[in-house]
Amino acid sequence: MKYLTILFVLLFCSCNNYIDVADIRVLAKEKTMLEIRGLVSGVVQGNNQLGGFYIQDARYFYKKSVFVNSSEQVSVGDEVLLNAIIIEKNNETQLDNVELIKILSHNRFINVEQISLPISDEQWEELEGCFVEIVDKLQISDSYQFNKHGQLLLSKGELIQETELFDAQDDSLEITELTLQQELNSIYVDDLSDLKFPQIDSLYIDPFKVVVGAKCSNIKGFVSQFNNTYKLRLVNDLIVEQPISPKLIDLDTDLKIMNFNLYNLFNGNGKKEGFPTARGAKSYDAYQLQLKKLASAIYAVDPDILALMEIENDGEDEFSSIQQFCDYLNKHGDREYEIAHTHGVIGDYPIKTGIIYDPSVVETKYKAQYHNHPNFSRPSLSQRFIYDDSLEFVICANHFKSKGSRNAKGLDLDQKDGQASYNFKRTLQAKTLLDIIDSLYFDENIIVLGDFNAYSQEDPIQALQSTNLNRLKTVNHSYVYKGKNGSLDHVFVSDNFKDHIDQVQTWNINSIYPSWINYSHNLADSSYFRSSDHNPMVIGVNRYEK
Fold first, then answer.
1. Helices (H), 311-406
2. Cβ-count burial 110-119 (b if 16+ within 10 Å, e if not)
3. Is the peptide bond between 379 and the residue preceding it cis, with omega within 30 degrees of 0?
4. Are 251 and 503 in contact (CB under 8 A)?
5. Tens digits of per-residue pLDDT, 468-501?
6. Distance (Å, rounded) from C-alpha 468 to C-alpha 38?
7. Which residues lie closer than 8 Å to 22 by C-beta, 6 or more apart?
8. Most exposed of 15, 57, 253, 396 (fewest Cβ within 10 Å)?
9. How far apart are alpha carbons 120 and 368 in whole angstroms?
């Protein structure tokens, strides 16, 4: 049937001396020069790496279009006749080696195809090269590629990490269905260039309005393909409805505990020198801005106790990152925090967990203890506190192995079940943590918190909930990865202490905001927005049971 179609098209060409755009795809593998008629629907020329124009079928309302690699001077609405070779570039049909024969007419009507999500890859393929308008209001789901390639991921509704909702072993069908539905309801939008690291403040949206969840309309452009990914090259600015900023945490409670990933807080050599270090800020000035942004978030919450992740593992003396962070908070705020000093067993990993507290509100009992078990990537840290001379409890801060695949082997390889790499190791870490809790803190009041690098229905989190620990649920998620929301940060409380927990909140000030307002970018400010890539969590504790 394919060869009969090609024969028919070639016969049609010989009779009419040219072919229309709708007929070219069956000839994509024929490397001969063809005479093609089309209607210019968009011009993309200038210093932008793309260079060319789009033509659609000249016949009224015919849904076929193609991109033309050419510097020929044409205008939108021109009906043109040209010689070209049909090629496939990164799986996209294009016209190359172009010679403009003549312009047949001007100011012709341009068809704009109105579409609505969900749309399958097969449907996008049919629309390749077409000028379309998405009639739905879509929301921003991911901005990771915006400052790198000028791309945003838009979706019809919020995207969720599948294992945030479904068990990897028991709900594989539900995971597959959710993955498919989210793909059908998502599309990347792009600028009209192929530039790397474009000037983002001159793109199709104000970069300060790029917030996950923000609603967008006026979505018009040309359907394009790069390898197996479809995208829409926008021809105009998006209209954005700015979401309401998250409210400040205001817990009416006796005691506030804040769980906060500090986004690799490294202080050089502690003497305003030694930058860049292995992680974190590349200069002393960037480090100072990082401190301001982190402190701004902490001052807004005003916690009595801080459980910290991703702080430099460089001891606890006056030049250490944790001591200088504590000093900074005290210098610029209203508290006089102290660090929970340990016996110094912290392993050899570049980052660690830490605890800071206000001694005027709580007192410590014994030194804090790192549990330097070989199963841990970063040792777990526990500190016993006494509040109001009577309420005694333990805070256990954790940072489990990340999902990155580097050096993974054996059972730590990605098992393709939605839990990514090192799920086996994280599950082993969860079981090790339970053994430590059972042996050292059995039947005691304990809050277990931290960055567990596992979503709510994954094996490590399920393992931690299998004893007397209860996971406290929150409204917001703590992290966004590839456009999908989920919680990598969790709080668990023992059965005998859960009635002292007033509430827990995830404060949505980081994960939904773009990376270019963090401390390392030239567009950054000193606000708490994007002070980290993880959202902080705040736990309210009452001296008396509810």
1. 321-332
2. ebeeebebeb
3. no
4. yes
5. 899 999 999 999 999 999 999 999 999 999 999 9
6. 70
7. 57, 59, 62, 64
8. 15
9. 55
